[in-house]
Design brief:
The protein is an alpha+beta fold. The protein has 13 helices and 15 strands. It has a 5-stranded antiparallel β-sheet with strand order 2-1-5-4-3. Strands 7-6-10-9-8 form a 5-stranded antiparallel β-sheet. It has a 5-stranded mixed β-sheet with strand order 11-12-13-15-14, with helices on one face.
Length: 527
């Protein structure tokens, strides 16, 4: 049987039991109340009859049955009580609904207390012949009991009084039951829609499949609700983020600040972010995508983040990148040497031997100066190789590159890798080259200095500079003034420097000046 029908039947049965129980209790309460009211009314009438002088005197003196019978008949027809009996101390009836019984002993029982003890009371009696509510009251004449009066009402009359009230009660109960069954059907339908029409077995199967899929993904998955609390994560996320099973339900802000800052930012901005590199600690970089979670009403109910550990990929890429950089540098150098050889060849053919010698001397001097700075003062081969590659590329584009002769780099800050320094240098120098290639007499100035306190980098060009209206946006992910899928380089630079507790500033002075300072020791906020 489907869940919807089970819920409808179950709720309907509960409603039937509840309404039925209420109906039964109400019925008996009403019945008891009516019977009590009828008994009280019978008692009042009996007391009134017992106080009639004619009845008192007749019972005490004349023993005239007809006088008492006529007195009772004079008003009995005006009341609901048709069962009025007056008797003397021996139980002889002086009035009765049927006159033939006058003068005979009352034989229905129940009168002993009123005759022998003079008590007034109400009794509900059941026997083979009748079921009635009867009120017994003693009759006195000159303070001496001379008889008793019985006022009775058959329970058929009581039920007739109840029938009208019970009809309305039955109607109310039936209507309530029908409304309850209709409500149960509507509720079951709403529940069915909320679970997309799936049956419990199907839901259990889907949950099992979802868990299997999540746990076997090679990417880490972690999800939070709209309050920032963790609702699920898979085993890859558990390993990478060093989570425990009991972390479910905790606020995501208690995890690594760099990672959680982006998740909470996406939740607040209600805008997804894809393919974002986040460095969670030294030597651990994640490629993350933060997607908004929405329910069937298209309401945002949280964020799910999928991420991949790029550390191994980065390590593998470093070798490839190094080979590529070397290839690029050799290609640029080869192209540059060919141009210079063509110049020397032309001068020799023109027999301008002195000019050829001067040209060779000038080129040798320039190359010797650059090689001397990069080989002797830049102690890291990767950084020196990158700078040489960028020097050759700029020279090929007719852009002058000047390395400060006081540059010296032999230490790398502990909170940044060589690859990240190369990324910072490469992006900033490449931006300068792309701007200066549009103009003549382009110049780039580069200085690197490291000591026990910090690593300082200065890159300056004589380009047009950065416009004031976009200066605040240049570090925003995806922002670019160039064509194509650009706008990530400066954002990456800013992330690297921020994580290393460094500072980057921009000055506009006959071009653009980038000043970077990265402390040698790890800062507290990333400990």
């Amino acid at each position: 049987m489907k869940l919807q029908y089970k819920l409808t039947i179950f709720i309907s049965v509960i409603i039937f039991i509840v309404i039925g129980g209420i109906g039964i209790v109400t019925y008996y309460q009403v019945q008891t109340s009516v019977e009590t009211q009828m008994g009280n009314n019978a008692m009042d009438l009996a007391v009134t009859i017992a106080s009639i002088d004619t009845i008192e005197k007749t019972l005490a003196t004349s023993k005239d049955y007809k006088t008492v019978q006529k007195t009772i008949e004079s008003f009995s027809g005006k009341t609901r009580f048709k069962y009025i009996i007056v008797m003397d101390m021996k139980g002889i009836k002086y009035s009765y609904p049927y006159g033939k019984s006058l003068g005979k002993r009352y034989a229905d029982g129940g009168e002993k207390r009123v005759i022998t003890k003079g008590e007034s009371y109400v009794a509900k009696d059941k026997n083979v012949l009748i079921t009635a509510i009867r009120a017994f009251v003693p009759i006195y004449y000159h303070d001496k009991q001379v008889g008793a009066v019985l006022v009775g009402l058959l329970t058929d009359t009581v039920y007739a009084e109840l029938s009208t009230r019970l009809l309305y009660l039955k109607i109310a109960l039936v209507v309530g039951l029908l409304i309850g069954i209709l409500g149960a059907a509507i509720l079951a339908n709403i529940i069915k829609k909320s679970i997309f029409g799936l049956e419990p077995k199907e839901i259990a199967l889907l949950l099992g499949q979802r868990d299997i899929v999540l746990q076997n993904l090679k990417n880490g998955i972690i999800a939070i609700d709209k309050d920032g609390k963790i609702i699920l994560f898979n085993k890859i996320a558990k390993i990478i983020l060093e989570l425990e099973d009991q972390d479910k339900g905790k606020n995501v802000a208690e995890l690594n600040s760099n990672f959680t800052r982006e998740m909470t930012r996406v939740l607040r901005a209600q805008k997804a972010v894809y393919n974002q590199e986040i460095k969670i600690h030294y030597g651990k970089i994640l490629m993350c995508s933060h997607t908004l979670l929405k329910n069937y009403k298209d309401e945002i109910i949280g964020v799910v983040s999928s991420f991949q550990d790029l550390t191994e990929v980065k390590n593998m890429a470093e070798e490839l990148t190094g080979s590529k950089k070397m290839t690029c540098a050799l290609r640029s150098q080869n192209h540059e040497f060919l141009n210079k050889l063509h110049t020397i060849s032309g001068l020799i053919e023109l027999e301008e031997y002195d000019e050829a010698i001067k040209y060779i001397s000038h080129i040798s001097k320039l190359r010797g100066k650059v090689s001397d700075i990069l080989s002797k003062r830049i102690k890291n081969a990767h950084i020196a190789g990158l700078l040489l590659a960028k020097y050759n590329k700029a020279t090929e584009a007719k852009i002058s590159v000047d390395f400060d002769t006081n540059s010296y780099l032999d230490k790398i800050p502990e909170n940044i890798t060589v690859d990240e320094i190369c990324s910072v240098l490469g992006n900033l120098i490449e931006n300068s080259i792309e701007e200066l290639v549009k103009f003549e007499n382009g110049k780039i100035y580069i200085r690197l200095n490291s000591n026990n306190e910090s690593l300082r980098i200065k890159i300056q060009d004589n380009g047009p500079g950065i416009k004031d209206n976009i200066r605040e946006k240049i570090f925003t992910r995806g922002f670019t003034t160039k064509q194509g899928n650009r706008g990530f380089g400066l954002n990456i630079v800013k992330q690297i420097i921020d994580y290393a507790d460094g500072d980057i500033s921009i000055l506009q002075e006959n071009g653009t000046i980038w000043n970077i300072c990265i402390p040698m020791k790890r800062g507290r906020k990333n400990d």
